[in-house]
Design brief:
It is a single chain. By secondary structure, the chain is an alpha/beta fold. The protein contains nine helices and seven strands. A seven-stranded parallel beta sheet has the order 3-2-4-1-5-6-7, sandwiched between helices. Strand 5, helix 6 and strand 6 form a beta-alpha-beta unit. The two termini are 31 Å apart. The mean pLDDT is 96.
Length: 238
């Protein structure tokens, strides 16, 4: 897995922390890692972006950001409103390939969901994954409503012939409700892909050393960790 694209089923569901956890597990295994954020929205110049945060938590080697737009909108909309040039899928793919030349793993973190537009031509993160021939790791929320959005994301990937690595729950609650517990069993069926981890809520607030030490416990072996989906389901009472 030289390049992995990380997409959410929506926004604000833990993509950056999942990206950081995957990066931390890879760093712990002795791999050099770069985190690429094609378009950062909603931040002013000088503020720490998602790629910077993932590197801070994980100890990854490189953070890269191709464009930054001030308003918290879809990248294509934010670029248009700011009168700035958009970032298209071809440019993102070229940047990812360049980073792959000097790193063992490149994680490309999207903005929002898989089909959020980068530009007025309709380019999306799915197009980036297709151009790269890279698999997509899907980050989903834990609770009610996640099955539909996860199923739609999986269908969109399959329709485009893009490999889905699996699903990671971006923020697993300390006191999961019935829907969250049941979703542990139902998410793999909805996604038609394996459940590959669950990140405890609040993990992004941990000190970097604690985050790096714990990250492999949150991820399945396919992502470099030790997490066991069946054991986790049993413990959660799913």
């Amino acid at each position: 897995m030289g390049i992995v694209v990380v997409s959410g089923t929506g926004t604000e569901i833990g993509k950056t922390v999942v990206t950081a956890a995957v990066a931390a597990a890879a760093v712990a295994a002795g791999r050099s890692v770069a985190v690429l954020k094609p378009a950062q929205t909603g931040l002013a110049p000088g503020e720490r972006g998602d790629a910077d945060e993932a590197v801070r938590l994980s100890g990854a080697k490189t953070a890269a950001e191709l464009a930054r737009y001030p308003e918290p909108l879809a990248p294509g909309t934010a670029a248009r409103r700011a009168g700035m040039a958009p970032v298209g899928p071809e440019g993102v793919a070229e940047a990812a390939r360049g980073l792959a030349d000097g790193h063992d793993l490149v994680l490309v973190e999207g903005a929002g969901g898989l089909l959020v537009r980068f530009d007025d031509g309709g380019g999306t993160l799915a197009d980036v994954a297709r151009l790269l021939g890279a698999p997509v790791l899907v980050v989903a929320p834990a609770g009610l409503g996640t099955l539909n959005s996860t199923a739609l994301t999986g269908e969109a990937l399959r329709a485009r012939g893009i490999e889905q690595l699996g699903v990671v729950v971006g923020s697993w609650p300390s006191e999961p409700d019935l829907a969250a517990r049941c979703n542990l069993a139902d998410l793999p069926d909805a996604a038609a892909a394996p459940l590959l981890g669950a990140i405890p809520e609040g993990s992004g607030a941990l000190p970097p050393a604690a985050f790096r030490a714990a990250a492999p416990d949150w991820l399945a072996p396919a992502l470099g960790g030790t997490w066991d989906a069946e054991a986790f389901r049993r413990e959660a009472g799913a």
